[in-house]
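TICKET: design request
STATUS: open
ATTACHED STRUCTURE:
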Protein backbone atom coordinates (compact mmCIF):
# COMPACT_ATOMS: atom_id res chain seq x y z
CA UNK A 1 0.00 0.00 0.00
CA UNK A 2 1.37 3.42 -0.95
CA UNK A 3 0.82 6.62 1.03
CA UNK A 4 -1.14 9.48 -0.53
CA UNK A 5 -1.89 13.15 0.12
CA UNK A 6 -4.78 15.53 0.73
CA UNK A 7 -4.92 19.32 0.62
CA UNK A 8 -6.77 20.86 3.54
CA UNK A 9 -8.03 24.41 3.97
CA UNK A 10 -8.72 24.83 7.73
CA UNK A 11 -10.78 28.00 7.18
CA UNK A 12 -13.01 26.07 4.75
CA UNK A 13 -14.50 23.89 7.51
CA UNK A 14 -14.86 20.91 5.15
CA UNK A 15 -12.99 17.65 4.92
CA UNK A 16 -10.49 17.17 2.09
CA UNK A 17 -12.19 15.82 -1.03
CA UNK A 18 -9.41 14.80 -3.44
CA UNK A 19 -6.84 12.05 -2.88
CA UNK A 20 -3.50 12.86 -4.56
CA UNK A 21 -1.32 9.88 -5.43
CA UNK A 22 1.91 11.92 -5.32
CA UNK A 23 3.26 14.93 -3.44
CA UNK A 24 3.78 16.92 -6.65
CA UNK A 25 0.09 17.01 -7.54
CA UNK A 26 -0.85 17.81 -3.93
CA UNK A 27 1.65 20.69 -3.89
CA UNK A 28 0.29 22.04 -7.19
CA UNK A 29 -3.26 21.89 -5.79
CA UNK A 30 -2.21 23.53 -2.50
CA UNK A 31 -0.60 26.39 -4.42
CA UNK A 32 -3.72 26.77 -6.59
CA UNK A 33 -5.91 26.93 -3.49
CA UNK A 34 -3.52 29.39 -1.79
CA UNK A 35 -3.86 31.71 -4.80
CA UNK A 36 -7.65 31.34 -4.71
CA UNK A 37 -7.82 32.10 -0.96
CA UNK A 38 -5.12 34.75 -0.29
CA UNK A 39 -4.01 35.00 3.33
CA UNK A 40 -5.30 31.52 4.22
CA UNK A 41 -3.13 28.49 4.92
CA UNK A 42 -3.46 25.36 2.83
CA UNK A 43 -2.09 22.25 4.51
CA UNK A 44 -0.74 19.22 2.67
CA UNK A 45 -1.59 16.10 4.66
CA UNK A 46 0.08 12.74 4.07
CA UNK A 47 -1.85 9.60 4.92
CA UNK A 48 0.71 7.26 6.47
CA UNK A 49 -1.61 4.56 7.80
CA UNK A 50 -5.18 3.29 7.72
CA UNK A 51 -7.08 1.27 10.29
CA UNK A 52 -9.92 -1.10 9.61
CA UNK A 53 -11.62 -4.03 11.26
CA UNK A 54 -10.41 -7.33 9.90
CA UNK A 55 -11.23 -9.38 13.00
CA UNK A 56 -9.38 -8.07 15.01
CA UNK A 57 -8.72 -4.45 14.00
CA UNK A 58 -5.33 -3.83 12.43
CA UNK A 59 -3.32 -0.77 11.40
CA UNK A 60 -1.35 -0.97 8.16
CA UNK A 61 1.58 1.42 7.72
CA UNK A 62 2.23 2.59 4.17
CA UNK A 63 6.00 2.52 4.73
CA UNK A 64 5.92 -0.99 6.13
CA UNK A 65 7.04 0.04 9.60
CA UNK A 66 5.55 1.94 12.52
CA UNK A 67 6.99 5.43 13.14
CA UNK A 68 8.98 5.94 16.34
CA UNK A 69 6.84 6.95 19.31
CA UNK A 70 7.78 10.47 20.36
CA UNK A 71 7.34 11.79 23.88
CA UNK A 72 5.11 14.48 22.35
CA UNK A 73 2.70 11.91 20.86
CA UNK A 74 -0.27 12.27 23.20
CA UNK A 75 -3.96 11.96 22.54
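STATUS: resolved
RESOLUTION: sequence designed for all positions
ATTACHED SEQUENCE:
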Amino acid sequence: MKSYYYCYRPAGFTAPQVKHECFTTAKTEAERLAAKYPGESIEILQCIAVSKIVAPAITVFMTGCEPANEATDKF
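CLOSING REMARK: The beta strands are 4-8, 43-47, 49-53, 57-61. Residues 4-61 form one domain.
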